[in-house]
Please model this.
Amino acid sequence: MKQFLDLEDISNIDSIIKSAISLKSNPFQYKELGKNKTIGLLFFNSSLRTRLSTQKAAQNLGMDVMTMNLNSDGWGLEFEDGSVMNANTAEHIKEAAAVISQYVDIIALRAFPTLTDKKKDEEEQVIKSFQKYASVPVVNMESATAHPLQALTDAITISEFKLKERPKVVLTWAPHPRALPHAVPNSFAKMMQMIDVDFVITHPEGYELNPEITGNTPIVHNQEEALKDADFVYAKNWSSYNDYGQIKCTDANWMVTKEKLQAAKFMHCLPVRRNVIVADEVLDSNQSLVIQQANNRTYAAQAVLKGILEDN
Ligand code: SN0
Model:
């Protein structure tokens, strides 16, 4: 694997899932692979799982890790070409990416969307600029429109817990007090179309995701109907895509409850707002997979970093 900007960088989904599961059973088998190599984890936004699991994944491969919160600790970065930098930005991405590339062998990056400027968010300016001006591979730790490490984690988790060859997986929108990105549902929807599952999306009207991403996936506006006979229910809030970044629905009836879940397993990428997205009774039951899912973040990242170390 040359880089990991999005799911398209995975050449064989089954083999990377197998690789992650093998790493999970024997995490230190490639401890020599990353010896004397360094990964730089660069964050423009908050993180708990991504930061710790990617660090752990790199350490399991014998790598050294440097982490920096670019927003709070770095210079204000300029991304526009040719700009006259006489305002708030002190350093251009051209220098920053070239300099960081001399200190690390892999750059991993988190940069959330503005949720106000759709065109800019879809251009993926931050991660694309790092890719353009860095001389080392770039890994996406959640960009404006994609969270491929989470989606790989989710595919691993479904393959571990499925009880039938082709389980029914439902992605349900759920309420949230803040406007959230589309990255997680985008990547989850893309991934579910790459593996063998019966995939359905349910959300209130006005919450259609980018149709280029959802493709032929059935979209059902009646949540109860969508959840019928589900094996896995994946809850996630996202803001409106068409009315970009707006909150169109606050209907608490979209929260996932035990009654709605029936026999299905519950999944969420975390962090999750209890009793807003999902009821305590679900998270506190053995139908919830959220903790096991978070554990798989390490092995998804480790499989990706192993692939990058091997091919660079
Ligand atoms: C992020 C998101 O993309 O939805 C990260 C998920 C991995 N989630 C949030 O920003 C939630 C923040 C909140 O206030 O609950």
